[in-house]
Amino acid sequence: SYVLTQAPSVLVAPGQTARVTCGGNNIATKSVHWYQRKPGQAPVLVVHGDGDRPSGIPARISGSSSGSTATLTISRVEAGDEADYYCQVWDGTTDHWVFGGGTKLTVL
Amino acid sequence: EVQLLESGGGLVQPGGSLRLSCAASGFAFSTYAMSWVRQAPGRGLEWVSATSGNGAKTYYADSVKGRFTFSRDNSKNTLFLQMNSLRADDTAVYYCAKDRAYAFDVWGRGTMVIVSS
Fold first, then answer.
1. How many angstroms separate the CA atoms of A52 and A57, rounded?
2. Which label site among A61, A79, A85, B50 has the fewest CB atoms less than 10 Å from its CB?
3. How confident is the model at residue B59 (pLDDT cuts 50, 70, 90)?
4. How distant is the Cα of A37 from the closest Cα of chain B, in angstroms?
5. Which chain A residues are closer than 8 Å to B110 by Cβ?
C-alpha cells in the first residue's frame, strides 16, 4: 500500500516561511492535497492538488511536488497558522485514499 | 451553504454495533462521491470508506473491511455508516466528507465513537 511520510513537527517564527514536507514514492506523479486541522475543528482543505485554491485560503499558502517529496509552503507565517497539517493522495492501484501522519506547525 | 452534519455517535461495548448518519445540504448530493474519515485520540487522520455518487461502488480501508458498511440514500441526502464488531481501536471522531477530484473539500463537524467496556 502507498505510504506518505511527514515529519512530526515544524517550528517557525512569525513572518518567516514554513515548509511542511510529505514523502511518498514518485509522489510528484500524483495529485497531492493538504489539510489544516486546528484543535476542536474539522479539517480544512487548504491546497487542492489540481491547483485550484479553495475559497477563503490566502495565496501565501501553496503546494508543490518534485520527485518523492511534496511540500506545503506557508509564507509570512502568522500565529493563526499554528495547526496540524496533513497531506493526502488517492492510490489508484488500491482505490484507497491515503493520509500522511500529520505535521504539527508551531509558531514561535 | 454547503453543510454536512453527522450524528449517531456514542459509547458502545467491544463487539457491539453502531450506525452513523450524515445529513447533507446545499449541493447536488447525488452527483458527488462521499467518504468517512476518522481521527483517533492523539492520532492522525485515517480514511475509512468511500462511495460513488450513485452508491454503486464502495471502498473500504483494510482496517474496517468486513465490519463496516457504507450506504447512502440520495432521496434523503443522507449517508450511513453501519459499524459492526467494534473494537477499542475504532474509538475516534468520525467525519463525513464531500469528494472533489479525490480530495475532501467539505467536512462535517464529526461525531465521537467510544468503544469501551
1. 10
2. A79
3. very high
4. 10
5. 42
The C-alpha angle B35, B40, B43, rounded to 5 degrees, equals: 105
Beta-carbon separation of B101 and A45 below 8 A:
no
Cell of B93: 471522531
A28 touches chain B (CB under 8 A): no
Closest listed residue to residue B93, CA positions, set B68, B107, B69, B111: B111
- Closest residue in chain B to residue A34, using alpha carbons only: B103
CA atoms within 13 Å, Cβ hemisphere of B24: 26
pLDDT digits (tens, 9 = 90+) for A21-73: 999 999 999 999 999 999 999 999 999 998 888 999 999 999 999 999 999 99
